[in-house]
Amino acid sequence: xxxxxxxxxxxxxxxxxxxxxxxxxxxxxxxxxxxxxxxxxxxxxxxxxxxxxxxxxxxxxxxxxxxxxxxxxxxxxxxxxxxxxxxxxxxxxxxxxxxxxxxxxxxxxxxxxxxxxxxxxxxxxxxxxxxxxxxxxxxxxxxxxxxxxxxxxxxxxxxxxxxxxxxxxxxxxxxxxxxxxxxxxxxxxxxxxxxxxxxxxxxxxxxxxxxxxxxxxxxxxxxxxxxxxxxxxxxxxxxxxxxxxxxxxxxxxxxxxxxxxxxxxxxxxxxxxxxxxxxxxxxxxxxxxxxxxxxxxxxxxxxxxxxxxxxxxxxxxxxxxxxxxxxxxxxxxxxxxxxxxxxxxxxxxxxxxxxxxxxxxxxxxxxxxxxxxxxxxxxxxxxxxxxxxxxxxxxxxxxxxxxxxxxxxxxxxxxxxxxxxxxxxxxxxxxxxxxxxxxxxxxxxxxxxxxxxxxxxxxxxxxxxxxxxxxxxxxxxxxxxxx
Length: 483
Prior knowledge:
globular, single chain, 83% helix, mainly alpha
């Protein structure tokens, strides 16, 4: 039995809970390390840098950072889903072509994005509430990270490609290496050389770029019959490009929605809050966001484990396993989401003190946590529905789901509540409103997707008559017809 056949057997026959452990545990460990380093990053830059000014500067850059993350996750998750489908269908050349064309898209975006962003930074930061004391710190941070956007794009794609190729442990080690590089350089540049916010940005860029490039070299050096980068795979293929964009565009729209939400939130803070509270609200919101990144680690780990399993099952036409994987992931994610809501709303002052002892910042962050995270308990289910839609190549439905939640519910709610109340505390209610609206929309999307997949399963069942006895004896028919 070849390595590819062994991998196929594992993915198609191992019990779903064990497969989730195989994919989720490495992702969980990597995400815990990554997010603890993110918190450590904030602690080091706030304690060793310029305190609340440094946190505020990072908060001002956050909408742009989220926009870059949207592009990288859209490409990465789209490639993960499409590669998993091709591997499930035993189409390795097509999987390699998808990886190669995703790299081409990454290269083009790495040149384009900095050119259209770098000159608009002062105006963007001013609109979002940057003042004379915070603008220099925000610009110092952004002037390093904007030209290095390619590093973020490369690391995310590398991580998703490794998971699609059934190497979750290697992906975990890459993320741990990234965290170690970041924290190490933070200590050297911020504490040792007193470089403040700029040192934090340099550490972040290096932590993304070095491991990401290492993985790309790994894929270039692999032999035939495996997922790899070759000259042939780098030839433009519009079918591969469209398939990746279609699969990942829903995630792109979702993360861009978060970026737009952050931009609107910062703008409303600047418009509605007293001038002496603008900085504390931006810094407090950023502190809550960093804590939320740790709280949502189990949800992201489940999502990362879900995509290759669901995508493989869909490509191999094993529909019962697909349904089992979705149900298992949704139940576990909901449990963790409920626990997360209790922590986020129950003890905000405790985790905010990790970043700052400033009283106004802690009070502002506490208010944000207790109001804005009132709908967190349904977020786990919403994420699992979106990941499933991407994994089964229902990108249009995923796009509709995220567009409706962010652009038709959340942002209009923020603006409406701001106009009616002129109070930022009331504006925070828009987040739980959008979370619960997203739950309703997810149920509708799930029903639609279930109808389409049921039709495909019935068509697969009718194809049973075309499978010859010799194919059944070799196991081919069993694998294809397990619906």
